[in-house]
Amino acid sequence: MLRSRYIRLFVSSTFEDMLVERDILQRKVFPRISQLCGSYGWQFEDIDLRWGVSQDASRLQKTMQICLNEIKRCQALSPKPNFLILQGDRYGWIPIPEIIPFSEWQGVMKYLRPNELKLFETWYDLDENAVGGEYLLKPRDGEYLDYAKYAADVENPLREIFRKVADFLPEDRQKYYYASATEQEIMAGLYEVEDAREHVMLYSR
């Protein structure tokens, strides 16, 4: 349902590759758009998750959930266009899955070595209350509040495990195991909707 008089624009790109462009948008472009919208009685909000994902959300391993949910909100609540892609040279950060369906994981866990399975079980909890059951990535705490240590000891090894099993998954699910955050955003905002030409803008450098 369209929210009256309210425009939301999701900005998708790798952060480091598009620092200059994002800064120009924030300092010069978006304020003018906001002023123009205001003159017609509309409220403009840019969704730039360079600022929007809190440290708590990152620690709780909910970054991608927040990103993909914000894209859905823009698509559902805002007039078009509502999705902006800034495309550069970097592929960007590759997250590990935050949620894994139980049935999906049962089909691929047989391909893991015991130490790989142990690492998975250390960092994922089974939520049996979810429909069908699902594994949830645990929050970072203790020594793993240090992201560099977490990346070295946990995230990078798990990423290799998921790359190993991804080929055994349905093609439409593989990206959630090895695609970058930016690619997942673009899939959700561009390729998984029928009216992309009406609501997606692309800047390619």
Offer a few descriptive terms:
single chain, 205 residues, 3-stranded antiparallel β-sheet, elongated
Structure characterization notes:
- The chain is built from ten helices and seven strands.
- The protein is an alpha/beta fold.
- Helix 4 packs parallel to helix 9 and helix 7 runs antiparallel to helix 8.
- The chain starts with 5 loop residues before the first strand and ends with a strand.
Structural topology:
Elements (H helix, E strand, L loop, with lengths): L5 E7 L6 H21 L3 E5 L1 H4 L2 H5 L3 H15 L5 E5 L11 E3 H5 L7 H10 E4 L6 E4 L9 H20 L4 H8 L2 H11 L4 H4 E5 L1
Parallel strand pairs: 1-2, 1-3, 3-7
Antiparallel strand pairs: 4-6, 5-6
Helix pairs in contact: 4-9, 6-7, 7-8
SSE order: EHEHHHEEHHEEHHHHE
Q: Unreliable segments (pLDDT under 50, ≥5 consecutive)? A: none
Number of E-state strands: 7
Q: Tell me about the biggest sheet?
A: 4 strands, parallel
- Quickly give the structural class: alpha/beta
Strand content bin: 15-25%
The gross shape turns out to be elongated
- Please estimate the helix content: 40-55%
Radius of gyration: 19 Å
Strand order of the largest sheet: 2-1-3-7
Query: How far apart, in Å, are the first and last alpha carbons?
Result: 34 Å
Average predicted local confidence, pLDDT: 91
- Total of helices: 10
Summarize the structure.
The protein is of the alpha/beta class. Helix content is 50%, strand content 16%.
